[in-house]
Amino acid sequence: MQKFELQITNANYGTPKMLQCRIHKERIFILRGVKVCTDPKQKQKACSFWLVLRGVQLMDLLKTPFKGVVADIEGRAAWYKHDWLEGFYSGFRILAPTMYIFFASALPVIAFGAQLSRETNGILTTVETLASTAICGIIHSILGGQPLLIVGVAEPTIIMYTYLYNFAKNQQALGERLYLAWAGWVCIWTAIMLFLLAMFNASNVISRFTRVAGELFGMLITVLFLQQAIKGIIEEFKVPGGVDHSSPIYRFQWLYVNGLLGVIFSIGLLYTALRSRRARSWVYGQGWLRGFIADYGVPLMVIVWTALSYALPKDVPSGVPRRLFSPLPWESSSLHHWTIAKDLFSVPPAYIFAAILPALMVAGLYFFDHSVASQLAQQKEFNLKKPSAYHYDILVLGFMVLLCGLIGIPPSNGVLPQSPMHTRSLAVLKGQLLRKKMVQTATEGLMNRASSLEIYGKMQGVFIEMDCEKNTDSVDKELKSLKDAMLHEGFDKEDKLAEEFDPKKHIEAHLPVRVNEQRLSNLLQSLLVGACVGAMPVIKMIPTSVLWGYFAYMAIDSLPGNQFWERIRLMFIPSSRRYKVLEGPHASFMESVPSKTITVFTIFQLVYLLICFGITWIPIAGILFPLPFFLMILIRQHVLPKFFEPNDLRELDAAEYEELEGVHHDHTLEDGASDSGSCGSRDDAEILDELTTNRGELKHRTFSHREERHLQAHSNAVQPRCGDTENWSEC
User: Fold this and answer.
1) C-beta separation of 137 from 151 below 8 A
2) Same domain for 621 and 682?
3) Average pLDDT, the chain
4) Is 112 part of any domain?
């Protein structure tokens, strides 16, 4: 280590050109040296070496086109047959994750279709968004590199297509007639750019999109969801465009009733959906029922509130409440999309080349969104065994965008949070299959009075067989905790299993995470989405107000886990109450970064978010709204380090979400006296509220045996004051 560090820090390579040549020759050596360089005085020099090295590596990638794509194809081709067999071997159990991800994919696409129909005057509707999601999902499940990735029409696509429509309808040479043809040219240019990104291995730089950019983008989508929900509810009180205003249902009293019903259905769907998502923590009901409600509660609530919308007095006109508008897929207004390619050359040449600008934004947006969704579907915590295919998936995405443009439907790309949800559901399935087989093997061994090592050996064999893992050393490492639970330390091979070993209990607790990596669930859920196109007569029964409530649900449900949102909330917590945050699970930066630094960093992100949101309101330039997120790469690398300490910036912009357990805070000082300046100070009314029931009875509290032992173990701990410190971890 010292040798590498010494040679790096003392090297003198002359001019930058000579430096690059030398680095090109000794790349591996310099890379190792930079990584072990710990001398603070040589920090700037080490960073310079690193930047030049990254530049040389990027140049090498540009000189070897298709290197990443070829490597991805070779890596995934070896597993292609197994991808299908793994799905079919799962039997009917594969239907659980399939239905779970189907509902998670279909509902947003239906809602986006309603939004797109309103924004494009009915040119694009739910039929097109469902068709795009189904077609692209089938293509990706069969030909894609990473089958765990879920694709679908997302909110950024709706925003871009809205801007394209607003631009085209005001251009005499285009108008609504050539809107889809011009959008087709945007897709063609976008596909070409995605091909180039895949060709020149651009996925290697996706790591430069750090948490700062990702959380800003996620928060912008959240704000746009809320905006859409509010706009939709307000529209319920107005007469929709393109209808006969003399109709009885558009009189004031019925518009008012429609609006009030819209508010009730929207808030009702929002509240019940949020409650059902947390059903696993309920104290009522059996575990399987709570799990079912948590997994399928949201689509169930859509059905419930749709049914309630029909439980109205018969005197209410049939158009109240307002319902989803969409032509049926077999009507002429839907069928004309499939032949939009014949109108491509009716677009004036000037507008064909003008389509390059929005295509540049769409390509960058898809590249970022698709790659991040793929990354989150392949998090290292999932312990995936099959290789990734980032470069090849971008190439496949280019073909899907091209196809969608030629048939006049909005393109699909990798979506969040459906992609990691898909992986997580398959991890549960794989765990069930492994656990069942291993418990059966262990139980048979116990009945035959086999030794502990014999039972462990058989269980290890089952694990290797079902996991297709050839490296027994890695399996031994992953099953070490299970082995320790089975064996007494120091026992020989003939000793019998420890008496306290329970197969069901210990295998459940010590089984490593495994994912059922296959293509069948993705294909089946895509086929189900396609079936929804034929079920449009049923889908059209959903009230639009229920969909606006679903937009609000998507916005609020996306906030937990977003550290940007957590830091915004912390800005409104007074210093005397910060201990309450630390008593529950909290992000690790709260204990390592000064509160002033957290506040300044959050204000910067908040201002940047407002700028991004403001751009979306600009009529023509709004199409450039992805540009600030690309600029964030440069700001993160070159601007933020000048205003924040490196360690603080690394904590606030960490690649992984690290959460710490809460620590109980003693609200009394060591001597028992109260102190208004202490971080545990509370007013009498708050204490009285905690000790009083809703009936007015005073509660008599006693410690459980567990709490008594906890207090005895921590009786000597002294709670610090937080009024004079800026580190939250000290209170």
Assistant:
1) yes
2) yes
3) 78
4) no
Structure tokens at 279: 């059903």
Distance CA 91, CA 103 (A): 20
Write out pLDDT tens, residues 431-456: 666 667 777 777 777 777 777 677 77
Amino acid at 190: T
Q: Which amino acid is at 153?
A: V
Domain check: are 577 and 674 in the same one?
A: yes
Q: Quick one: 387 exposed, middle or buried, by C-beta within 10 A (0-12, 13-18, 19+)?
A: middle
Short-list 67, 372, 359, 47, CA closest to 206: 372
Looking at the structure, do residues 475 and 574 belong to the same domain, yes or no? no
Question: What tokens were used for 595?
Answer: 């509160």
Query: In this structure, are residues 413 and 154 in contact, taking their beta carbons and an 8 Å threshold?
Result: yes
Rounded distance between C-alpha atoms, residue 335 and residue 329, angstroms: 7
Provide CB contacts within 8 A for 169, sequence distance 6+: 175, 176, 179
pLDDT band at 396 (very low <50, low <70, confident <90, very high): very high
Please say which residue of 63, 85, 114 terminates a domain.
63
Q: Note whether 506 and 567 are same-domain residues.
A: no
Q: Give the strand pairing for 659-660 and 586-587.
A: antiparallel
As a residue count, the chain comes to: 731
Q: What is the pLDDT of residues 469-498, one digit of tens each?
A: 555 666 666 666 666 666 654 344 444 444
Residue 256 to residues 239, 240, 259, 265, Cα–Cα distance (Å) = 11, 14, 5, 14
Q: Could you tell me the two tokens for 708? A: 């008594």
* Residue where one domain finishes, among candidates 15, 38, 63: 63
Residue 175 has pLDDT above 60, yes or no: yes
Contacts of 167 (CB under 8 A, 6+ apart): 620, 623
Whether 395 contacts 143, CB under 8 Å: no
The CB density around residue 682, as the number of other CB atoms within 10 Å, is 14
Q: 641 — phi, psi (to 5°)?
A: -60, -20
Q: Which tokens in the block code for residue 203?
A: 């996925």
The pLDDT of 319-337, averaged and rounded, is: 81
Domain ranges, residue 49: 2-63
DSSP state of 414: E
Closest-CA residue to 604 (of 644, 637, 659, 638): 644
Same-domain check for residues 482 and 628: no
- The reply to whether 95 falls in a domain is no
Same-domain status, 597 and 678: yes
Q: Is the dihedral of CA 418, 420, 422, 425 positive or negative?
A: negative
Indicate whether 571 and 686 sit together in one domain.
yes
Name the burial class of residue 380, with classes exposed (0-12), middle (13-18) and buried (19+) by CB atoms within 10 angstroms of its CB: exposed
388, 177 contact by CB (below 8 A)? no
Token digits of residue 89: 């071997």
Task: Look at residue 47 and tell me if it is in a domain.
Answer: yes
585 lies in a domain? yes
3-state secondary structure 240-264: CCCCCCCCHHHCHHHHHHHHHHHHH
| Domain total in the chain | 3
Residue type, 614: G
Q: What is the pLDDT of residue 143?
A: 93
pLDDT digits (tens, 9 = 90+) for 180-193: 999 999 999 999 99
Nearest to 326, CA basis, from 526, 177, 537: 537
